[in-house]
Design goal:
The chain is an alpha+beta fold. The protein contains 7 helices and 10 strands. Strand 6 and strand 7 form a beta hairpin. Helix 1 runs parallel beside helix 7 and helix 4 crosses helix 7. The longest helix has 20 residues. The model has no long low-confidence stretch (mean pLDDT about 90). The structure holds a DNA duplex.
DNA sequence: GAAGGCCTGGAA
DNA sequence: TTCCAGGCCTTC
């Protein structure tokens, strides 16, 4: 489940490998993952050079030459692998939906997605013409000022966890980093945002930034499917304190970590450390 | 504002 | 066979 740190990690790796390279060929195996009709997609991107790769929320944005942008959202199980001539493994990958080919030196970027919740699309490289779902994204949490963050959430009546998951309010958070930041800030996921003390909301922003930066430093969390561009795993899952630890003992106080469901989604928290 | 359904496929 | 995952949409 790639969230901000996982997508950030991949974007950095993609930049290192693909920046300046030209797309020589495309193989579309599953047209339904494309937002653009396959014929048009191919015609648009073959021959273009990759200027740079950025991240916005959980989206990977590839800036191509001549003002075209390629957008990739990995959904739950999306993966990107880069293989050069030498690094190509002997085994075949299942669930591969799209391959971009590069020449001199030869290489390929493979898009694989078991659940097929991810998707890929094109848009002009002009912010006002970005895809609707990108334009609707809220601010990047790492760019948000602590005080502004607190003031914003102080006016909201919904449960804090639902708000953190809402991409139109804050971009890039999913279950892992919302649970982990709430733990660090000592806030229960079901608390109404407007009932949380202003200082506590400021602390939430600090916790959030901390946990995101730590996760980026460890190359993201590899729970099930997330992998780096070269197929290796991230390591931040080793440092999760509550996510996926329902029933285990809290590392801080020894209480049993509880799991609750919030609109069909699991939230884990420590009943003693989080109020 | 909250809950439930849908998409898909792997694990239990 | 049932459950679950994340994002988005619809319904209440």
């Amino acid at each position: 489940m790639p969230e901000l740190p996982e997508v950030e990690t991949l974007s950095v790796q993609l930049n290192r490998v693909l920046r300046g390279r030209r797309i020589s060929k495309v193989q579309i195996r599953t047209p339904s993952i494309l937002e653009t009709p396959p014929g048009e997609f191919e015609a648009q991107i073959v021959g273009r050079q990759i200027a740079r790769i950025k991240r916005r929320g959980k989206f990977i944005q590839m800036e191509l030459s001549e003002n075209l942008a390629l957008w990739c959202h990995l959904g739950m199980t999306g993966q990107l692998f880069f293989q050069s001539e030498e690094s190509r493994p002997a085994f075949l990958l299942s669930h591969v939906h799209l391959i971009l080919f590069f020449d001199n030196p030869p290489g390929r970027l493979i898009y694989r997605d078991i659940r097929r919740f991810g998707h890929i699309g094109l848009s002009p490289a002009l912010e006002s013409q970005f895809p609707e779902e990108v334009r609707r994204l809220g601010p990047e949490p790492l760019d948000w000022k602590e005080e502004d963050f607190a003031l914003f959430f102080k006016t909201r009546r919904a449960r804090i966890k639902s708000l953190l998951l809402n991409q139109t309010l804050v971009a890039g958070l999913g279950n892992i980093y919302s649970d982990e930041s709430l733990f660090r800030a000592g806030i229960r996921p079901l608390r109404r945002a407007d009932k949380i003390a202003h200082d506590r909301l400021r602390r939430l922003h600090r916790s959030l930034c901390e946990v995101l930066k730590e996760a980026i430093r460890w190359g993201g969390s590899s729970i099930d499917d997330y992998r780096h561009l070269d197929g290796t795993t991230g390591r931040f899952q080793e440092f999760h304190r509550v996510y996926g630890r329902g029933g285990e003992k809290c590392q801080t106080c020894g209480s049993s970590i509880r799991s609750v469901r919030l609109s069909g989604r699991t939230s884990s928290f420590c009943p003693r450390c989080q109020k």
